[in-house]
Design a protein that fits this description.
The protein contains 12 helices and 15 strands. The chain is of the alpha/beta class. A 7-stranded mixed sheet has the order 1-2-3-4-5-6-7. It has a 6-stranded mixed sheet with strand order 8-9-10-11-14-15. Strands 12-13 form a two-stranded antiparallel sheet. Helix 8 crosses helix 9.
Length: 314
Amino acid sequence: MDNITPLGGDVYEIDTRMAGYAGITAGYLILGDRPCLVETGTSTSAPVVRDALTSLGVGPDDLATVVVTHIHLDHAGGVGDIAGFYPAAQIVVHQKGARHLADPSRLMSSAQMVWGDKLDVLFGTLSPTEASRIRALDDSDSIDLGGGRTLSSHYSPGHARHHVGLLDSATGDLYVGDAAGVYLPKTGDLRPATPPPDFDLQVALNSLALFESLGPQRLLFSHYGPVPEVTETLARSAEELRVWVDLTRRAHAEGMDLDHAVAMVREKTRERYAVLASEDGADTEEAAHFELLSGAPSNVAGIVHWLERTSGER
């Protein structure tokens, strides 16, 4: 299948074809004694992921584990559907996200408020998973991949309070979810993901420092793909966070409303990203994907929410 890329170490990248597009959201299959799917993609992507697993020899009773880095719908929206396709699989998520997979009503209600009519097209509906099948991870935990291989879980909030990074003991691959931002392999662009309501700058920077301390060999982005330059990329992720926060703080201090703050930050950061830098030469489809996954309105709104919350605390 053209949406499967072998990455070595019995790891396979699966393009989930989010909303029908290529290169937006990746899931990863770790084959072995206890096959494990990292990230399901959206509900509408679930059949695509199932077909990919089938082509890799994973049948309905073979998948041992499904683990998500966090419960945002582009990462975990397909959990309920995948759980139905693979009745023997245990569903693994950080403890702060577990109840939302068992009862997604509140999560879906919030998503409806944010996305409106776009919700069904982009994400579909997260179906509930039986609570008895859900394993809630502690802040530091481990998932058995069989044969002595493990996926260690490391609590890494900042982007979301239910976020974990996952380190493969066999390959040194670190599944970074959204904690290190959004990466475009075609252009090499890296942009932060700072949506409301959970973004916190220092917590996010601490998570990046934690990732560095784990000594991974490669970063596997959910958006999108493998990046071997670990130290440089994590440093760049931290720099991007600081740039966006500094610009948003300036706009907020000047009393700009959200629309004007977004316009200012978007303009001031445009030259940082090859996909956006030249309007006439930019790949408009790539640019649209970038904006969908790390939209300036969402990023700025998340930072403003954090600024106002921390101002109140002070």
